[in-house]
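ERR on first pass: missing label on line 2. Operator R.T. fixed the label and resubmitted. Corrected input:
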Amino acid sequence: MMPRTSSTDGYDYIIIGSGIAGLYTALLAREKGSVLILTKGSISDCNTRYAQGGIAAPIGENDSTILHMQDTLAAGAGLCDAEAVRILVEEAADRIADLIRYGVLFDTVNGQIALAREAAHSVPRILHIGGDATGEYIEVTLSRRVRESGVRVLEHCLATQILLQDGGIKGISVLDTYTGQTEEYDCRNIILATGGGGRLFKFTTNSEIATGDGLSLAFFAGAEITDMEFFQFHPTALRLPGVTPFLISEAVRGEGGILRNDKKVAFMADYTAEKELAPRDVVARSIVYEMQKTGADHVYLDVTHLPPSQVTTRFPHIYRFCLDVGLDITKDLIPVAPAAHYQIGGIKVNTWGETNIPGIFAVGEVACTGVHGANRLASNSLLEAIVFGKRIIEKSLQAHSSAGGVKQVEAYTFKAHKKISKTPRLNLPVLQWLMWDHVGIIRSGKDLEYMTDLLASWEISMQKPTDRASYELSNLVTIARLMAEAALLREESRGAHFRTDYAQTSPVWQKHITFKVEKGGGRGGGVM
Ligand SMILES: Cc1cc2nc3c(=O)[nH]c(=O)nc-3n(C[C@H](O)[C@H](O)[C@H](O)COP(=O)(O)OP(=O)(O)OC[C@H]3O[C@@H](n4cnc5c(N)ncnc54)[C@H](O)[C@@H]3O)c2cc1C
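pass 2 clean. output:
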């Protein structure tokens, strides 16, 4: 079908995605020009609305930007961009003030903003709303403001291709998933706010939209993609047969929740002195080892020793969800296991959200600003979206640099792939199981070799996508390949990336792995 071109002059800004990154950036962009938001589901379909714990900011009496920076750098295991982290913590308070101005009402105690503690934060610094419904409140408030602001929002519109002209941005090609029509929209700036790719894995806390679309689109447009081997697995998602792996927030352990094995014995002290408050990767791996020891497919999270009123007021959302599936968490242990949670790597951007392609910006989970390094500190992602969203709009007012925003890297080709004898048929459940088993929490060179070969052969044989499901599957295969290739290259363990054949951190690998499509359509990468 021939595309219909919908705008003659083009928009000043096209923003793809309606999570916190897209909505907040759109509100700022609207003050500077015309804005179109494209989103593939309804406006409320996103990961943002599932965020529970809250949003980190160093605003407490005993806190400081230095402490927040130190905690973020420590979690990042040597790979954070220190300048990006400095910006994150120093601009946090002003961006929280923006959210409050937009109508976001954070929980308070005695008239002061209430601050919770989460794992690997040295002091309480997590602002929350409705106890554990932070994301939902932010999403509802910002969408209402967007609706009121005159921003045009097109729902059920799937971005399928970035259109380039003279080395810069022309616009975006979109599939209207209701009518099946393809449309093209022109713009001066495109802001990718499409979220992560957590649906790559069998067990995931992510919503159905998290299929790596923006990353894949940007990759094929020539953007640099970096740090893809780092994917964060949350240690505690509900594990009950037939029930979605609903997140049991970090804050539950922060509040005193204890992890117990299937014999009800507390075990975290056997693995780390920080016990339940160790960084996510350490807790997730400890749980996997404990499950391997006992043969169970879950451990338990215990809050039965806490006063019931503390549990129900601090975690009303979790309490209600569990009650609906038959668990009263004030009396019953919660069966939990790790699940895929957050894509740390992404489209490489500088501290102004610029990619290497003039006019293309990325923000939120799809972007890699470098603030998370090799592992994200809990509750820093909502903050990252607003801090760098604001900077994108400031930067967009200046003329685009012809070289784009980030330093270009040398081409480096993906490993030559071997033909595998029995190629399983590609479909979503098969991809998700294989990624969980081979590119998940604990990896090995052998498994990664197999997956890179398999993904390469799937890529070659894949049909051209025609509808939302086939576009999403194709995008997932692309990001799976980027992740598996990077994980195979990184012969060490660091942060969220753990390999049994290279279990130690190596100073040789204190660097980033970046991939980029070679001129002529081939795929390449650079290590820097
Ligand atoms: C269960 C859960 C709990 C979390 N808790 C916290 C927390 O407490 N604190 C914290 O800081 N972080 C938390 N996170 C992480 C955080 O919520 C996300 O990183 C953040 O919300 C991402 O925001 P975003 O705007 O980048 O993406 P999203 O909110 O995922 O939005 C992406 C948007 O892009 C749209 N989109 C995607 N592809 C296309 C396409 N091809 N065309 C058109 N539209 C497209 C989607 O439909 C969606 O609207 C949590 C995540 C989960 C899953």
